[in-house]
């Protein structure tokens, strides 16, 4: 395969920013705050941090090293690392990327809608009739289709230009902007009256308020947030040069992703704890925190909210875009490596094919959606095409994919093969190869197996 179609990162910074862009997304800004809310903060956050260090970080390094070793996308890389049967694990990942992208794009589209609305509110004043807005916009089928189409086109556009000219360039510009906006929001949130209480709620563990399902949810989310279990980091790892350090890059990606999730949670909780009566309201619909509770608060409670609101929704859109890019790249890279397509054909072809399924997801909130809105495979509350897909990917595909990667790196690849990739004399002092081996061979597979068993027994992580 010509290197031109595949591409490489221009350097360590390019890899770290692109992979961090993949990791930071709706999982950090939308999902983590609401699951932290649902699980009563403190103890959940601590357990989540434990999962990130003991399971997420070792698997992140495993995915990056498997990719770099073969310089192939998920299917080829797993085949080279662990034998022909593991190509099916790679294909499982490509399928997960395909499905996840098809519905993730819909939520990403909502951020475009709220950005547009916020611009209008900033210019001509907040319109309080907006409280039912969320329900109206998701039920508006043409609007949902347009928003998803715009987002898909942007994703395809970036992947079309390739690794260093497309993905890396976008990450290099967008990520610093995203960090800057988040810092502004954090400063504003810390100045609010409820920030002290918010910090206590998030960082003071109260173990009696956490149950077993919460522990498993923390573990499940650590996969989603770090983009693990579906070959995205294997694919990004395949563009790493021999001289770059996987340990340093993996450490930086995981640290940045975790910091951003915590910062987003501090911001949202500060707002919630500052407004009398809001706690109960949020309790009833934690999922909608980002799109239902926050817009009005920006204009009524947050200092400089009129300026910060549009910036905030741009931030969500940018974070989502750097994630959708990585999802499309998993499928595109597979088509380039294994099906020998050119990058242009692969990006456009897979992007268009995925968009067909995005249409299903986009229509699943609207009365016009028919069976797409009403289908019900997994039971109450998981109805509609959108929830059905999310349930399947979050509960089944990512944990099983992550388990297979841990087995490949910990049990099938030789100690020497992984050692060579991780230990090159430049790794930081906090890294111990032996500790990594223990995590990847014992801790990570056991923990992931626990999720899979819990899912079989009926727990829901989506
Ligand atoms: N990590 C992304 C988020 O937190 O929103 C979601 C994601 C992106 C998962 C890319 C998997 C992936 F390959």
Report how far apart the termini are. 38 Å
CATH superfamily: Amino acid/polyamine transporter I
Radius of gyration: 21 Å
Q: Please identify, by name, the CATH architecture.
A: Up-down Bundle
Return the string of H and E elements: HHHHHHHHHHHHHHHHHHHHH
CATH class: Mainly Alpha
Strand content: under 5%
Total beta strands: 0
- Bound ligands, each once: 4-fluoro-L-phenylalanine
Q: Looking at the structure, what is the overall shape? A: globular
Assembly type of the chains comes to single chain
Number of helices: 21
- pLDDT averaged residue by residue: 90
Describe this structure in words.
The protein is built from 21 helices and no strands. The protein has helices at 3-6, 12-23, 26-38, 42-70, 74-82, 87-124, 133-139, 141-160, 163-190, 195-203, 212-225, 232-237, 246-274, 278-284, 289-300, 305-338, 343-363, 371-374, 385-412, 415-422, 433-456. It is globular, with a radius of gyration of 21 Å. The two termini are 38 Å apart. The mean pLDDT is 90. The structure holds 4-fluoro-L-phenylalanine. 4-fluoro-L-phenylalanine is lined by residues 22-23, 25-28, 97, 100, 224-225, 227, 230, 232, 323, 326-327.
